[in-house]
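Appendix C reproduces, verbatim, an entry submitted by the partner laboratory led by Prof. M.T., so that reviewers can inspect both the input and the predicted structure.
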Amino acid sequence: MKPSVSFVLPYYRVDGLLLKRCLESLLALPEMIDYEIIIVDDGTPGTSVPDWLAKWKMNSRVRYFYQENKGPGGARNAGLSLAEKEYVQFVDPDDYLLPERYLTVWSLLQEKNPDLLSFDFRIVYDKGRFSGSEGDTTVWFEGNGTAFMLQHNLRASVWGYIFRRSIGRNVSFPEYAYHEDEAFTPLLYLRAQVVVATDIVLYAYYQRRGSIMNNTKLEELHKRFTDMLRIQSLLTSFSVSFPVEQRRAMHRRIDQNYMSMLYKLLTDSPDWKFLQYYFKGMKKQGGFPLPLHFHTLKYFLFASITMCPGVIHLLYFLLRRRR
């Protein structure tokens, strides 16, 4: 039986031209691909999406749903519950797919029958579209998700892979939270018996000013780092009941998340007091100093540095001068 895909778009206050670009990239997929498009409007005040869809004369593949605001995670949960196809792929509505590359992915879904297939992306900065007809098609990993997490660093962004809907049952995103991908992707990988990782550039990731991850207001910074600590605690609590290898894989991921969090604190903290506040939060959860493991050379060196408070202090002020 040929595979099928539900594309889930969590929408909130995205420019109409960007949404139209995203939808057009999906509707340009080859006709032999069986798919549906689900837009979950996460409580956009005075939303114009229904009017836009009527104006653009989008075909019957597009299904639109409106809900009270629950954040990106809540919108993705709703989309996942509405999905009807075998596979699910999340697409942010200000990004777009490269339909020229999708036949390659489609062939791999039929050939490898994976639970999860990951692909590469390209960062874009304008509102036009580029063609992705050329590029690498290498499959660089095949195995189960636990082995992948023990051997490789995980990219948690949920728009970076396609997954079998059945392995997502009873896995959900936290609502009203930043970094919600980190609470979903590792758990999904640990459920996947067949993971296929490729270098296919399938996704265009649009960078814009004012997005959540580019917001440096103090209130937003506090929410980002508080949510990250909460998600780290959540992953740790989940790991207690895992078999040994899955627990090792999850703790490797948790350690790497703490390393990423530490680096972002060093680069984004407005002052030393802010930095110290979150160091204490990490320490309370066992994430600072970083647990000394040889996950990778980069991780080991960074973990070693965290054992020396004076070096961390110096590193903070050196990075601050570069802003």
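The beta strands are 4-11, 34-42, 62-67, 87-90, 96-97, 116-124, 139-143, 161-164, 195-206. Additional entries are available on request from the coordinating office.
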